[in-house]
């Protein structure tokens, strides 16, 4: 029997949820990096000339999201290991939020807002 198995399993589930989030952020970065290809295809399918798209923002933000996702994986791996050691430790400690948790939601909100404005501007350029 593994001591504190329920705590270890919860720690692992949390770790895997963070890894899935990081993979999603990286996939979002890749999609944003290639968004200009979709816009060119959509304008051709609509029978319109391909407008000059302003893709510089996506060329910058896409790789930043890829790096951010990789950083999330690194940080949650460190957090997972720290929590694993704390679960096994006989010493009682308080559990506090990490910097990653404090920054993730605001950063994702900013990225979502940027994408909404960016997509709207690009679609207006096509239509």
From TrEMBL:
Record's bilayer topology term: Multi-pass membrane protein
Keyword Membrane in annotation: yes
Any one of the GO CC terms: endomembrane system
Upper taxonomic lineage: Bacteria, Pseudomonadati, Pseudomonadota, Gammaproteobacteria, Lysobacterales
Alphabetical UniProt keywords: Membrane, Transmembrane, Transmembrane helix
Protein's UniProt name: Putative membrane protein
InterPro entries with a match to the protein in the record: DUF202
Primary location recorded for the protein, binned into one broad class: membrane
Localization annotation: Endomembrane system
Transmembrane segments: 15-32, 60-78, 99-120
Annotated ranges, domain DUF202: 7-85
Keyword Transmembrane helix: yes
């Amino acid at each position: 029997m593994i001591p504190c198995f329920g705590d270890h399993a919860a720690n692992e589930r949390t770790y895997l949820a963070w890894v899935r989030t990081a993979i999603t952020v990286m996939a979002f970065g890749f999609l944003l990096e290639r968004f200009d290809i979709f816009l060119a295809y959509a304008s051709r399918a609509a029978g319109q000339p391909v407008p000059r798209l302003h893709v510089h923002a996506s060329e910058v933000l896409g790789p930043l999201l890829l790096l951010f996702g990789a950083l999330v994986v690194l940080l949650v791996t460190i957090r997972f290991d720290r929590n694993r050691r704390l679960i096994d430790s006989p010493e009682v400690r308080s559990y506090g939020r990490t910097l990653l948790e404090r920054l993730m939601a605001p950063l994702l909100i900013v990225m979502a807002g940027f994408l909404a404005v960016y997509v709207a501007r690009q679609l207006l350029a096509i239509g």
